[in-house]
């Protein structure tokens, strides 16, 4: 299956997830819809359910292409999704509008989602700088509540590289105010780890 139908499906399920949280429909409607959803789910399962999440090829991943990512993947209904672009200085700029389904305290985004957004953006900045790696440590400072249903701007950059250790930082900005900021330590993979990732990709494609 190409990515386009999966992205369309992801958007439809995302709308359903929002509706499931916000619905004021009666119990009879909810029960009826639940039965219909179960039937539709069985159609998707069929005989060809994947044993694992689909991954793009390693080259696409290095460019930040992850259609099934839980944070940036348009084909993943869990994702907001966060849109990211690389700036001329190799820093990255993200834009996203979180929804009521991401609510933690009343009216604001759950802190775990705030951390996920920043972790994704810092990692993306490292990949854009050619020093992508795995998160080893992430420190998040919550400056003020991060609201949903309003545009969020995220910025991140690679600060320095020390051997296989990569240090990055970033922040979430709303109307010119920083609501959260993060610093992270990332580890670039060894040649052995890269070989395992490539082998796992080839296994998934077979």
Continuous helix count: 5
- The share of residues in extended strands comes to 25-35%
Please give the domain count. Answer: 1
User: Which sequence of SSEs, written as H and E, runs from N to C?
Assistant: HHHEEHEEEEH
Largest sheet: 6 strands, antiparallel
CATH superfamily: Hotdog Thioesterase
- Please state the overall shape, judged from the principal axes of the Cα atoms: flat
Parts with pLDDT < 50 across at least 5 consecutive residues? none
**Distance between the terminal alpha carbons, to the nearest Å?**
14 Å
At the fold tier of CATH, the topology name is: Thiol Ester Dehydrase, Chain A
How does this model look, in words?
With 206 residues, the chain is α+β, with helices and mostly antiparallel strands. The chain has helices at residues 3-22, 27-45, 58-62, 111-128, 191-205; strands at 83-86, 92-97, 134-142, 151-162, 165-174, 177-187. The chain starts with a helix and ends with a helix. It has a single domain (1-206), classed as Thiol Ester Dehydrase, Chain A. β5 and β6 (177-187) form a beta hairpin. It is 37% helix and 25% strand. It has 5 helices and 6 strands, in the order αααββαββββα. It has a 6-stranded antiparallel sheet, covered by helices on one side. The mean pLDDT is 89.
